[in-house]
Design brief:
Layout: E1 2-5, E2 8-11, H1 14-21, E3 33-36, E4 39-42, H2 43-51, H3 60-70, E5 73-75, H4 88-96
Antiparallel strand pairs: 1-2, 3-4, 3-5
Helix pairs in contact: 2-3
Length: 102
C-alpha cells in the first residue's frame, strides 16, 4: 500500500511492517499505540522504525492512519479520567463547612 508520511511516499505492506518490527522492544505506550504481533508499540516508535526518519519529522496521525489501513489494531489516545464533580448537596455542605451525612 502506498502512503505518504512526512511528505515522503512509502510502499508499505503488513508483512514488511511485521518484519521491520521483529526484535524491536516496545517502549512504554503513553499515547496512541499499534498492536503488532502481541506487542503494543507507540505510534511514533513504529513510524521511526519503518520510515527510518526522526520522530519529529512526522505526526502520530500519519502513522496511525497508515497502520489502520494495513489492518493493524490501533488504539487511540486514552481518555482522561472523569472528574468527580460534587452534587449540589455536597457543594452546599462544603460551603457551610459541615460534613454531609447521607
Amino acid at each position: 500500500m502506498r502512503c505518504v508520511i512526512a511528505r515522503f511516499p512509502f510502499e508499505l505492506t503488513k508483512s514488511g511492517v511485521l518484519e521491520s518490527m521483529k526484535g524491536v522492544k516496545p517502549e512504554p505506550a503513553t499515547g496512541e499505540s499499534v498492536i503488532i504481533g502481541r506487542r503494543h508499540y507507540p505510534v511514533k516508535q513504529v513510524g521511526q522504525v519503518i520510515t527510518r526518519q526522526d520522530r519529529r519529522d512526522f505526526s502520530a496521525a500519519e502513522v496511525f492512519r497508515a497502520m489502520a489501513r494495513l489492518g493493524f489494531t490501533c488504539r487511540p489516545l486514552p481518555a482522561a479520567a472523569p472528574v468527580d464533580t460534587p452534587d449540589p448537596l455536597q457543594r452546599a455542605s462544603a460551603m457551610l463547612g459541615t460534613p454531609v451525612s447521607v
